[in-house]
């Protein structure tokens, strides 16, 4: 619809200053709380590592040195080498790419589907709400990891199915969150006023209800990135996620499991990497929750 | 030209009286609006006055299909209101809400809120929208430079003026204001009311104003309908009603209105009791009987309805003693 695209341009300020204003706003929200500030720094470093992996990694992630396997940390290999003599540091650095990309895809899937279902359920209420939410309840009643494993083994073991599986598992939580805020926001006078102006339901949902339910979505989405990281690592550890020789943290830990009595390093460093990444997103999520949902001075921070 | 013509409008709510009565099939009905008639011409200001809970808001909301009425015929510009699409009807009749703090989307700049309304109803070509927004904001006394601000940057009175600008943006022929200034400072109230009256005159709008404030009703209206328990008990020209109120309820209501002069000796008519619960109202007779100083045995069974008072065409009273 041309009407929608016109909306953004006519009465808004020029695009560039909006981008700057947006970045300033994000920074102000993130830095309002020390938890989210620390989390944000960790996340930012992870993104940096992922983007500049080829520059940062000292070796090719799959280059083998068969005469130097299971070596302990040394000057040449700061994190040691694995059972085929691959440099663990380099593999962890490249593994960041997969970890971040997958977590982001999973959360995007969760958000797009979960938010749509939640909005529709909360806006229309009644039968639509019942149908959508009871359907999601069925999903919730199954153990999440088991469901993900079933999906992956049924549709084939590859990374896309792993992402799809984890994304599906996360949808109900997002839908419930959005539904509950849509239910309360639709009673606000400004939504009544939007209806009173004759606006169609799509416009009311997307331009009047959704923008006002963003904070809980952001908080849940951020925390879910952390969970997705764990779940992807778990699936990879079980051999259902990213397939070797691609460097994935979970698969690295799995491969190193056999040699844990010989040397602990190949399992310690990938696990640490997972822990740090999860910690980063969790801290960010916790800090945002404080600021966006429970902060007394939320308005001061945001406006 | 008659804009809005309401005939026999009723809005009843079924009251859920608990699980057991539900099982037994007992339902109780709340008659929020119980058969009212009124009409509003272009350029006319009509006010519904009455105590809180008398059904005045429900009456206007169901007349304009913000709620589905139980019964009654409503014609808009001579055409059955059912024939209008939601978009067409909202483009003709706009509502200004009581809750001025919350009437604008907090995540949308006020300029964008007005522009959205203009675009949605295709009021002007896209390239003129921006100028139109500026013009509307100026008319309600907001500087166009402030249009990028979100609503939180404005005071309650300013928000209400922006809401008026947004309502006018769709170029309606009828404006409905449901207690738009209650909860605002008195000086701000006056400011907004004056603005509203100027704009009404300028655009030749029909105005339906809903209030419990008699001072405001007198200031802005041409005609008045006094509501009691879901019915209009007296209807007529503003001066007729204020100078020569006929219905005992209107008389009591007017006598309770403060006069800003301590020297004036007032005969205050004090009504006994409260307005009864609209659920318990008997269909027969006059609903005002329990509180009426003039009630007689006849009143309890009489056939009620608005009747012209002393042959005066415009002044209607629903009381058998007149």
Automatic annotation (TrEMBL), chain A:
Domain of life, per lineage: Archaea
SUPFAM superfamilies documented for this protein: MetI-like (SSF161098)
Limits of the ABC transmembrane type-1 domain: 96-285
Keywords associated with the record: Cell membrane, Membrane, Transmembrane, Transmembrane helix, Transport
A GO cellular component entry from the record: plasma membrane
Annotated membrane topology: Multi-pass membrane protein
Chief location: membrane
Protein localization: Cell membrane
Transmembrane segments: 35-57, 98-124, 144-171, 217-242, 262-284
InterPro entries found in the cross-reference section: BP-dependent_transpt_permease (IPR050366), MetI-like (IPR000515), MetI-like_sf (IPR035906), OppC_N (IPR025966)
Similarity annotation: Belongs to the binding-protein-dependent transport system permease family.
Designated name of the protein: ABC transporter permease
Automatic annotation (TrEMBL), chain B:
One Pfam family linked to the record: oligo_HPY
Keyword check for Magnesium: no
Domain ABC transporter: 4-254
Protein origin, superkingdom: Archaea
CDD domains: ABC_NikE_OppD_transporters (cd03257)
GO molecular function: ATP binding
GO biological process: transmembrane transport
Keyword vocabulary terms for this entry: ATP-binding, Nucleotide-binding, Transport
Tagged with keyword ATP-binding: yes
Family indicated by similarity: Belongs to the ABC transporter superfamily.
NCBIfam families in the record: oligo_HPY
Protein name from the UniProt record: ABC transporter ATP-binding protein
Organism, scientific name: Haloplanus ruber
Higher taxonomy: Archaea, Methanobacteriati, Methanobacteriota, Stenosarchaea group, Halobacteria
